[in-house]
Amino acid sequence: METIRLTMAQALVKHLQAQYTLIDGEEVPLFGGAWAIFGHGNVAGIGEALAQVKEEFTTFRAHNEQGMALAACAFAKQYRRQRIMACTTSIGPGALNMVTAAGLAMANRLPVLLLPGDVFATRTPDPVLQQVEHFNDPSMSVNDCFRPVSRYFDRMNRPEQLITSLPVAINTMLDPISCGPATLALPQDVQTMAYDYPVSFFTKKVHGLRRNRADLQQLSEAIEALKQAKKPLMVLGGGVHYSQALPEIQAFVETHCIPACETQAGKGALPWDHPWHLGAVGVTGSSAANAAAQEADLVMAVGTRLQDFTSASRTLFANPDCTLLSLNSAPFDAEKHNALPLVGDAKTTLQELESQLTQWHSDSAWQTQVTKWNNAWLAAVDKATALPSQANDSAYLPTDANVIGVINRQAQANTTIVQAAGGLPGELHKLWRTSDDLGYHLEYGFSCMGYEIAGGLGVKMATPERDVIIMVGDGSYLMLNSEIATSVMLGLKLTIVVLDNRGYACINRLQNACGGEPFNNLLQDCHTVEAGAPKTDFAAHAKALGADSEQVACLAELETALQRARASQKTYLIAIDTDPMPSTEEGGAWWDVAVPEVSSRQQVWEAHQGYQEAKRKQPY
After folding, report:
1. Nearest to residue 344, comparing CAs of 358, 362, 325?
2. Which residue ranges does the record assign to the Thiamine pyrophosphate enzyme N-terminal TPP-binding domain (predicted)?
3. Which residues of the chain, if any, have pLDDT below 50?
4. Which domains, from first to last, does the chain contain?
């Protein structure tokens, strides 16, 4: 057997370079490069290996380990899980900074290869700098924190272990059933150890999109259930995008006259103005979609985890005769909510369903009712996002909906909006209109504050031809903004709009809705010095990080600022003060947030009574 002598780190990088993926008939590298922040636990091992191939396999330097891993997550999401990035850190705080991103990737089923350095496998110099010692288990390190947030985890205690473990990690990330983050912990001494690796380990391999076929019995049961339905509804999730099933979805709803609604991850599967498109569903859903969900006698969920925001904490599909049919590549998801499972790839399974449904379509009365609901909702969105009469008034604090309306009207055909947490996900899910399947990138499986700017960077890396606009609240901005400097350094131009409502306004509203007093969310309700919390100059801060920026005083100024941002050659930040209290009243559904049973506040007691009443609508 022919071999080549390499360090474990060199072999790892060389194997990654040999992986390719087929996208639109073209072979492209599976890995879009590596993010790296070096420390004593990885600079001499994998750092040296990456330096050897820097011209063929790009290494990107970030300013925060969490930020770079979030960018890697966004890269994979924007590439519809067809390409991956690797992230390497030292042991200790660098590694732990990636755990949040691993949780995000796990929740959202996104592939990212995490390569944290680890303590010495030999334990000869223990305890080393940054090592957290465990009195009862010397084999444990902080990297064990990755275990619950990794689809695959291994610690490379010998260089030859890479031969079996790395392919399994890649296979796990590419499988639509098990897709998620893979973590290979790399002890710093093992990274530098040499081994005679088989040359075959570095043979070029081309991966493709895997499509699992549906079981014939499940397929037959699904067809029978559909044929019996008179008032069907489709719920489109992120799996529709990952399966590249958009043509099949559009043909299916048009042929059978089935209204469709979308989760956060599914948004963009149908153009916003498609006649059978009812918009968002669930807690942050449209009045049209939620009304249809309440009455539907069959709900066909495609490629969705059916999390609580989608199902309104299991209260949305209220028709007692409703059948929940769940088409998903993962059995774990297809079986949720006591659904009739249909385990299979969305694209191929829809094709098989279509071939056997012949002339079946929804009831004509249902079609008429759905159209009425939809027309009313479209009018509500027009009203919510219209430019208010105070557009030129600097004393008027705009709502999130006001700002969304301005940005949406300024958006181009190739615009991608990026967001993640706070009140904006609800407003965008309801109100943002996109006709492009890549036009809406919102991370809401983990609702991770701080994702926005780092995620926008990953989106731009995946689709550099697109105009990436990031909407972010002041709270999320202050949590993680350092990748602004990275975007400038890499020449990846972003437009960032900071909505400054001076605190965590979304949670303040939730606190109030649960009967609580305003406390520790808005800056005005926090423990501070007598002068209060300072007013952050976000424009000045972004400028200090190398971006172009400005503060605008009103909505009219925002419009012209967006035009200047589009003309800029580098990242451009626009800050605008907004009202923390209003949110769009139309649409929405109940969300299960527990309220205290005992409190000295009358408002909490009343909220608990309402909570108990709402809980009765849940099946269990």
Report:
1. 325
2. 48-130
3. none
4. 3-207 (3.40.50.970), 216-378 (3.40.50.1220), 386-577 (3.40.50.970)
